[in-house]
Design goal:
heterodimer, A: 471 residues, alpha+beta, PmbA/TldD fold, six-stranded antiparallel sheet, six-stranded mixed sheet, B: 447 residues, 2 domains, five-stranded mixed β-barrel, 37% strand
Chain lengths: 471, 447
């Protein structure tokens, strides 16, 4: 790609202007992103798309306040103007003053969690071939599949972050995703299955995790859901599936530990570090430092190195997820979780990859231990209320368990629970911990960022299943 | 950049694409001046004022289609982007339905969507509004002891569209929004609700004090809430959750989902699906509504489309492509490269929500739902919910941590009363309504 749109000398002048009217801290976030997408419908490439964006935002921080302005016009004149608009917050609060330190020369070096050398999107011919293979495999495998929709996205994001403490860093983050949706039909009944994978890598990833594998899995789930019976309503002993079941940790615990909510004291976990918040078998980490995971980065969107954060250790709350602003206000250090969707957004504390290490229970023993319950094997997503901790997640593939045996599939339904309550009711942890296939995206305050989740199978003694069949 | 300049740039982008070999091209430019502020306690905690721009193009190459989106539009930038996008288009299948709208479908019309008072607002006035909301939530009820921040947003947006069949059009619109997120402590928990209003015109926006009081009412209402037993009962959907449910229904009416089999409504035009009360329209022509615009993202004039008429499914919602593919006409719903609502709404009834509750012997007034749609294909609805028990026509105790579920056809057929509280505050809007019976999943014990 072309040369750096932001130089140390230019960034220095922008930061100087940003702090001229006051303020404690300022930064410039400059981002170039090139995304190629292709969609397949009815056996043919339906659409190909290319998006190329370049822009920068200037932030000024005073106390708990942040001023921001972005521009897609990267002339120094416009950037200085944006710095002046961001500085309005300092003129408003009139407290704190700092000077921008002399910027280091651009730091490009960092041990790579992913391939930082790829500067271009892959050739369109390769995308088309992968999608066509997925389509053929999905139909070949399950005759009741009536529609296959597949998409591939390949992205190269480059960022330059200059901070008033003198740090000036560059990273190049790749991302690729291949997703297959299958719809199976018999009469008026329909069942959907979705499977996707990828990560911070290149399309070479699909040499080992093949489009056929993803397509067969999507077709299998579509057929399972087509044959599924209506889910029951009521409270059940529930097994949460390994891998994608990590959505439970993300919703039930992770969001409630984000630093902004806790600094404001609006999370039910506020002020509870050191307290027991889960059963003793529960340990939860967030890690931005795992190779090729969607939530990983050499450094976060504030230029702070990502690391490993212990959130819950043997049931005890150990830490929050922080960006720079909230960490400073709470007298803590940023955990490298300051993330943003793009240069058009302010950073906020967000999860990277949230997971639980393995326990000891084998899956078959866990199933055998349930008299009348549900095995929620995979999920389509979830949502949480931070203050109360009530969360939901939507089953994408689930089964009844009756007298210790896996029974019929149940139709898609919502599970509802309360974070600390559910975590206290974890009675067994499987030995089958793994990270989920890489396709999850998290939304908060209108901003979407890629994340990872992972978990062993968990047994929860009671959760409410939102089925349609009365007990 | 002014409206005229945006039109010139869009026109120029189309010329460049055609010169580069596109058989047809369309360019859309959006300029937006946005202002966002958040207040918490005594402080302004966020202030974001930016002028943004974007260019989106659709390129056609003998029946193949590619899209191009970007932030840069010098002749040189556009030439490079178009050439890369056309290279990609070569891998797309030849599709006889792909193409621009017929020039006869593009007509000129203006709608009043622009409020000078929004554009002319000074920063002080804007900040006063959001400070006022933040102060008012704390004054409204002693139980409010914290805030997630009150927000003000406004935007002045210019949209210009040109295509290689001679279309060249533009319009301007304003938006202004205010919201609050009060917090009440209750033991280890924090009760919080988010409530706001949005409009194209400043004069129609709910006043800060009234908005703050409604946000607080919705927050403290749930203090002391318990988990209800599993049961089947009548459900009254408050207008905000009613609109969320309509959003899921919109997905099933979206022709791009219908065409690929991802809708439980596929193949059911003319069928009676809902009760007599199910009267749903999509309308892009309502004066001053947030969802209104003179033309959609392909330049096709917006219209009023009847989707359900007294319970019978009459039409899906189309852009040009899916209309051709499914043998219909565009309903003016092209949006951001796909299909979106203009204002998709349920027609209001006659009585107030209070009267509707009073006429409900036993049921639940659902005020909040969480979870999102995954069931456009199967038509199953299942959500986490929070609400208030109704006993003998009176609002009783608050309840939470339960789910409500039913197949969509049963929900629509079960709508037996609709209130009169419709408000066009989003592109999907609904009055409150009642469904005769739904499955509620809560605690183990039977009622």
């Amino acid at each position: 790609m072309a040369n750096d749109p932001l130089t140390a000398r230019g960034a220095q002048r922008i930061l100087d202007r940003a702090l001229r009217d006051g303020g404690l801290y300022a930064d410039v976030f400059c981002e170039r992103r090139s995304t190629v997408q292709m969609r397949l419908q009815e056996g043919a490439i339906h659409e190909a798309g290319l998006a190329q964006t370049l822009g920068a935002g200037v932030r000024v921080v005073v106390g708990e306040s942040a001023g921001y302005a972005y521009t897609e016009d990267l002339t120094e004149e416009r950037l200085i103007e944006a710095a002046g608009r961001a500085a309005a917050i300092a003129r408003l609060t009139a407290e704190g003053s700092a000077r921008a330190a002399r910027l280091d020369s651009l730091d490009r070096a960092r041990d790579a969690l992913y391939d930082r050398a790829r500067t271009e999107n892959a050739a369109p011919a390769l995308f088309a071939a992968l999608l066509e293979r997925a389509d053929i495999a999905a139909r070949a495998n399950e005759p009741r599949v009536v529609a296959v929709n597949a998409h591939i996205v390949d992205e190269v994001q480059e960022l330059w972050i200059a901070r008033s403490d003198g740090s000036f860093r560059f990273d190049r983050r790749p991302m690729v995703t291949l997703g297959v949706q299958c719809i199976a039909r018999a009469g008026r009944e329909r069942g959907t299955g979705y499977c996707a994978d990828g990560g911070r890598t290149s399309i070479g990833f699909f040499d080992s995790t093949t489009p056929e594998e993803l397509a067969r899995e999507a077709a299998r789930v579509a057929a399972v859901n087509l044959d599924a019976r209506p889910a029951p309503a009521g409270e059940f002993e529930t097994l949460i599936g390994a891998g994608g079941g990590g959505v439970l940790l993300h919703e039930a615990v992770g969001h409630g530990l984000e630093g902004d909510f806790n600094r404001r004291g609006v999370s039910l976990y506020s002020g509870r570090i050191g307290e027991r918040v889960a059963s003793e078998c529960v340990t939860i980490y967030d890690d931005g430092d795992l190779p090729e995971e969607r939530g990983s980065a050499s450094f976060d969107d504030e230029g702070t190195t990502c690391g490993h954060t212990v959130l819950v250790e043997r049931g005890v709350l150990r830490g929050y997820l922080h960006d720079e602003l909230n960490a400073r206000l709470m007298g803590m250090r940023s955990t490298g979780n300051g993330r943003r969707q793009s240069f058009r957004h302010l950073p906020e504390p967000r999860m990277c990859n949230t997971y639980m290490p393995p326990g000891e229970a084998p899956l078959d023993e866990m199933i055998a231990s349930v008299r009348d319950g549900i095995y929620a094997k995979s999920f389509a997503g979830g949502q949480v209320d931070i203050g109360k901790g009530d969360f939901v997640f939507m089953i994408a593939e689930g089964y009844r368990i009756e007298r210790g045996r896996l029974g019929a599939a149940v139709k898609n339904a919502t599970i509802v629970g309360n974070g600390p309550d559910a975590m206290t009711k974890v009675t067994a942890v499987g030995n089958d911990a793994r990270l989920a296939r890489r396709h999850y995206t998290c939304g908060k305050g209108g901003q979407y960022v890629p994340v990872g989740v992972g978990m062993p199978t968990l047994k929860v003694s009671a959760m409410s299943l939102g089925g349609t069949e009365g007990a | 950049m002014r409206e005229e300049e945006a039109r010139d740039r869009a026109k120029r982008a189309v010329e460049i694409a055609v010169t580069a070999g596109a058989s047809d091209a369309e360019a859309r430019i959006v300029l937006a001046r946005r202002f966002n502020a958040q207040a918490r306690g005594e402080r302004i905690t966020k202030l974001d004022a930016s002028d943004g721009r974007s260019l989106s193009m659709r390129l056609f190459l003998d029946g193949r289609k590619a899209t191009l989106a970007g932030t840069h539009w010098s002749d040189e930038d556009i030439r490079a982007g178009v050439s890369a996008a056309l290279e990609q288009a070569r891998y797309a299948g030849v599709d006889p339905y792909a193409g621009l709208p017929d020039p006869s479908e593009i007509a000129d019309r203006q709608l009043d969507l622009y409020d000078e008072n929004v554009e002319r607002r000074g920063d002080d006035e804007r900040l006063d509004d959001v400070r006022d909301v933040e102060r008012s939530i704390r004054a409204a009820d002693a139980r409010i002891d914290n805030s997630n921040g009150s927000s003000y947003h406004d935007a002045c947006v210019t949209m210009a569209l040109a295509n290689s069949r001679g279309a060249l059009r533009s319009y301007r619109g304003t938006q202004v929004a205010l919201s609050a997120s009060p917090v009440a402590s209750e033991g280890a928990y924090r009760r919080t609700a988010h409530y706001g209003d949005a409009s194209r015109f400043l004069s129609r926006l709910e006043a800060p004090g009234a908005l703050a009081r409604e946000a607080v009412r919705r927050t403290v209402l749930f203090c002391g809430a318990s988990k209800p037993p599993t049961q089947t009962t009548a459900i009254v959907f408050d207008r905000e959750v009613a609109a969320a449910l309509l959003g899921d229904l919109f997905a099933a009416c979206n022709a791009s989902n219908v065409a690929v089999g991802n809708s439980w409504l596929a193949g059911r035009i003319g069928e009676r699906i809902g009760s007599d009360s199910l009267e749903i329209h999509d309308d892009g022509t309502i004066p001053g509504a947030l969802g209104s615009s003179p033309f959609d993202d392909e330049g096709v004039p917006t219209q009023r489309t009847t989707v359900f008429e007294r319970g019978t499914l009459r039409s899906f919602l189309f852009d040009t492509y899916y209309a051709r593919r499914l043998g219909a006409r565009s309903t003016g719903n092209a949006s951001g490269g796909g299909i979106g609502p203009n204002t998709f709404f349920l027609a209001p009834g006659e009585r107030t929500l209070e009267a509707l509750v009073a006429a409900t012997t036993r049921g639940i007034l659902v005020m909040e739902t969480i979870g999102f749609a995954t069931e456009h294909a199967s038509g199953l609805y299942s959500r986490g919910a929070r609400g208030i028990m109704i006993r003998d026509g009176e609002l009783a105790e608050p309840i939470e941590e339960f789910t409500i579920a039913a197949p969509f056809p049963e929900i629509l057929a079960g709508i037996d009363a609709v209130a009169n509280d419709l408000k066009f505050d989003g592109s999907i809007a609904s009055p409150s309504f009642r469904v005769a019976e739904m499955q509620v999943s809560g605690s183990l014990s039977a009622p």
